[in-house]
């Protein structure tokens, strides 16, 4: 019997409009920022999320690091990478991602398409 995935996991970068990363590459927290940068810079990710905008800013030792995420519904999240890793960030933005995913699925279902073969 085939296995079906009725509730697929939403990608970390799904439904994100803009990401701004401010960090110091020599600091101890930079693993979180580096993982996020590698995730964004991957060719597969760039091909999948064409409209994703991101900005990388290197800061001084005394400045505070920041990961700023703007969702497609214009909701803004700010995280300090010293205190939050990527899994914690995912948990915080997860509710908005699922809400946006549900809206997308409602408007793009096959049954809602006028050119559907079911009509």
Portion of residues in helices? 25-40%
CATH superfamily: Glutaredoxin
* CATH C-level name: Alpha Beta
Gross morphology: elongated
Return the structural class.
Answer: alpha+beta
Question: Which residues sit in consecutive blocks of at least 5 with pLDDT less than 50?
Answer: none
Task: Please give the order of strands in the largest beta sheet.
Answer: 2-1-3-4
Q: State the order of secondary-structure elements, H for helix, E for strand.
A: EHHEEEH
Q: How much is the radius of gyration in Å?
A: 17 Å
- How many beta strands in the DSSP annotation? 4
Counting structural domains, the number is 1
Mean pLDDT: 86
CATH overall fold name: Glutaredoxin
Strand fraction equals 15-25%
CATH architecture level-2 label:
3-Layer(aba) Sandwich
The biggest beta sheet is recorded as: 4 strands, mixed
Distance, first to last CA? 30 Å
> How many helices?
3
Q: Helices, strands, pairings?
A:
Blueprint: E1 16-23, H1 30-41, H2 43-48, E2 53-58, E3 66-71, E4 76-79, H3 86-107
Parallel strand pairs: 1-2
Antiparallel strand pairs: 1-3, 3-4
InterPro entries: Ribosomal_mL53_fung (IPR042776)
Give an account of the 3D structure.
A hairpin with a 4-residue loop joins strand 3 and strand 4. The protein has a 4-stranded mixed sheet, with helices on one face. The mean pLDDT is about 85. It is elongated and about 55 Å long. The chain is of the alpha+beta class. The protein has one domain: Glutaredoxin, CATH 3.40.30.10. The longest helix has 22 residues, at about 85-105. The protein contains 3 helices and 4 strands.
